[in-house]
Amino acid sequence: MKKKIIGIIIVVVFTIITLYLLSSSEEIAEFPELVKRLDLKFLYIAILLMLLYLLINSTIIFVIGKEISKEITFMKSVYLSFVGQYYSLITPFAAGGQPAQIFAMKSKYNIPISVGTTITVKKFLIFQVVVSLYAISMFFTKIHFIVNRYSGLIVFIVIGLCVNLFGGILIILLSYSKVLVVKILDFIILIAKKLHLAKRIKRDVIVEHIDDYVKNIEEIKNNKKTMITLIIMTFVQLTIYFSITYFIYLSLGSTGANYIDILAIQTIVYVVVSFIPTPGGAGASEGSFYLLFRVFFTRDVLLYAMALWRIITYYGNMIFSGLILLIVRIFGYFKRKNKYV
Asked: Which residue from 116, 283, 83, 282 is spatially nearest to 212, judged by alpha carbons?
């Protein structure tokens, strides 16, 4: 609860900062004209893509869940998707999403914690591998463009890619050699001890988690049809999410940019922000967008492009998910109340 409150406070603070930057910018006088020339057709497509992203997220949960438990239906998967979205968006590193989903499965649907954990872990494993491969492929596809246009930021971009890729590589290694991963863990712990950072590191607990991951990876590998389906769905889901910026670009009347260029840079923004410990990458997302997308957007629309992107992908998502959870809770309350009348 304390972490949730801190997360909300951080989000509010960065929202106020963003609004201040927008209101104090020299281009504020041009805002009415900007609204007039906004091409709503492309803006609606951007919003539709966000909704499609959420729908695919629900479908992925359903595909994984139905293989494990008959209790998982598509409508339950939709609800669990919103639970994951909301709590991921208000907690640092999106750490609250999976525990909230596991708790919701147990408390609302009486699905065992072991089953809920398996579903969330499998989804995480697939997502992490796909997003790592997606990011690195985009980086090398547009490496000349990135090096030429972002020479001053290349260090931060590479760090973000390496952090994200490290997770994907570990998962791939786990599928072939648990022993090697444990050796890597022991090496990291050894370095941490020398730096006096290992007081809270519990090796036995980490190894238990590694065993759980290995078990889930083996189950995924043994069901190749489902694995391929999930990989394709996750790839499509990421492409849809990263494409939102391109349609915001078009909605603001901008032209000349290549779709793949914007897709690649949005992927970079995602991986750079992923290791920043603020809820929803608050602050880091806005800063990364501003620095990386000023190549595409003219100065008079850059801040507003950033605001539209965050409203659609973050604030709108958080409010929409929160409202769904609130409505479900209200209906549940009246249903329980009428049951005892």
From this structure: 116
Sign of CA dihedral 221, 225, 228, 234: negative
User: Among all chains, which residue has been given the structure tokens 């072991």?
Assistant: 114
pTM of the model as a whole: 0.85
Task: Annotate 243-257 with b (16+ C-beta within 10 A) or e (fewer).
Answer: bbbbbbbbbbebeeb
Cα–Cα distance between 289 and 310 in angstroms, integer? 10
What are all long-range contacts of 71-79, with beta carbons under 8 Å and residues at least 24 apart? 71/109, 71/110, 71/111, 71/115, 72/111, 72/119, 76/109, 79/104, 79/108, 79/324, 79/328
pLDDT digits 0-9 by tens, 196-213: 666 677 788 888 878 888
Amino acid at 106: K
What single-letter amino acid sits at 298? T
**Structure tokens, 79:** 């609800």
